Amino acid sequence: MTRVSPPLFAPEPPTWLAAARRAMQSPPRKPRLPLWVNGQAVGSLVEHFLIDTGIAGRLGGDALLSKRERSGTAVWLLESPTQDATALMGRLADALRDAGRSGPWRNEQLAVQAVDGSRIGTVERGAVRVLGIATLAVHLVGIAPDGRLWVQQRAANKANYPLHWDTLMGGMVSAQDSLDEALARETWEEAGLQITDLQGLRHGGVLRFRQPDSDGGDDLGYMYEDIHWYAATVPEGQVPRNQDGEVAQFALWQAAEVQQQLAQARFTPEAALVWAGFADWMT
Fold first, then answer.
1. Which site from 139, 157, 160, 186 is most exposed, i.e. has the minimal number of CB atoms within 10 Å?
2. Start-end ranges of CATH 3.30.750 in the chain?
3. What CATH number labels 32-127?
């Protein structure tokens, strides 16, 4: 195995980190009510949003979205005697899109879990923030044998943070993937690298984001996401090559350059905190 020189980060946390950590654990800007689907709590919605937009009521067939009480607490209840959670969430996601209140539509399904962790269905990725549904993501820190670090610049057409810098790879865990499968798939799609060719792959930690999100506009979105980050060495001679059109370029930077760009907020907020974890600034 190739001998690896460790990247050299400053030992003390940088000044920007305290605000970034506060931001990742921020309450909603507007009151939210729990969202229940066929008797299972799965997310949350801004309190009066569905009434104000006219989405509440019949969503097609026998699907009904109404405000009820459960154990003395007001909730939004989406239910049907014949339609499963995936069909119901699909109808609600379509209604959000038609009202112009979803995030960017990706035609990608993400898992929907009940509060006990059991999977009850799937929903379009563009609806998860407005619906306050818990999501999973993966990031990969790529290290060159000489200690430099691989970074990617997001494409100009990305809906969120275009042309910002990111870790070597970062992506969502789709409904069809386990964490390991998402790590391998996203590493290939974004960087053209086979995860089995990387050296010293390790799971670095989990970052738990609970913060307002711009999807849907008008403070309707809320990000409830756990990001699992990993680190590995990209062997000598292997160069990342994007496969899905979502990356503008890759670069190899010294740790000092990464720190400088972090201080100037040139990375996405999620990537910035992954770098903080990698640099041992989060302990």
1. 157
2. 32-127
3. 3.30.750
